[in-house]
Specification:
This protein is mainly alpha-helical and 288 residues long. It is built from twelve helices and two strands; from the N terminus they run ααααααββαααααα.
Length: 288
Amino acid sequence: MTNADELYWHQREQIRLQGDLDPLGEEVTPELRAAVTWVLAAFNEVRTFAFGVLSMLQEMFGNVPFMPGRGRGGIDLPGTLARWIHDCGEEELLTTLEAVARSEPSLLRTVLSGPVPGTYPQAINRVFRHQRFGFEMRPDGKIDRVGSPALHHEVVRPALARIRDPRFASAEDHFHAALDQFREGNARRCVHEAGSAVEAMLHALGYQGHRLADLADDFRRRSIERGYITAVAGELSNLMEKLYAFRSDRGAHAGKPDEEPVPDEYALLALHLAGSLIVFLADREQAG
């Protein structure tokens, strides 16, 4: 067994032991706020970012209650940031944590030891996991909403890694958009973007067709020509066609604005199906 294999099975076991198949919450609890404040204070001591972050927040939200103190401009910067974390809403909290990474990108690489070990994303994710908070920070500082930790680990992360290839730039844009829409609670738009990501992936790999269903047909035909068992090629193609039908029925252009909302579970299914297909297509392309 290779080191990579050992790491994979270790991570799988950790997922099982941590109960990551259980549902996650999205409530910003006092304990979560306190833990996040602790992490930010630790990193602010190494790379002072409070002023830059507060400036961003003031520009975005315009209602940051600055606390007087002996810091820059007569402001208690760490205290103001801590108070903001204590009082802000969920989306404001997530935006703040992303703003820290944008304000001080070196935190993405800076590794702390002691009470708050690891890089900034690692420390934030440790808090999220411990608090069972349904979000995860990427290595680049962007935060995604996580419906299922196990599937996020097994499907979403690998898909994101594979579409970094410049050839798949359009697929990357759509898949990131699907994740963003899922975080914002726009399930209908998430379904549409997930299907568009697979469509863009197939186009990038040279398959022909104007719609995802047509691309799936071309995939089936070429797969059989390459020696795939007809039934296997057909089933893979059917998965793509199901995503197309799913998107047509539940996607951004389906129905009217006052139509019944799309459940989050539908968006999550489309997101994970798209991620699985992206991983399969990229790996098959690499294998030749």
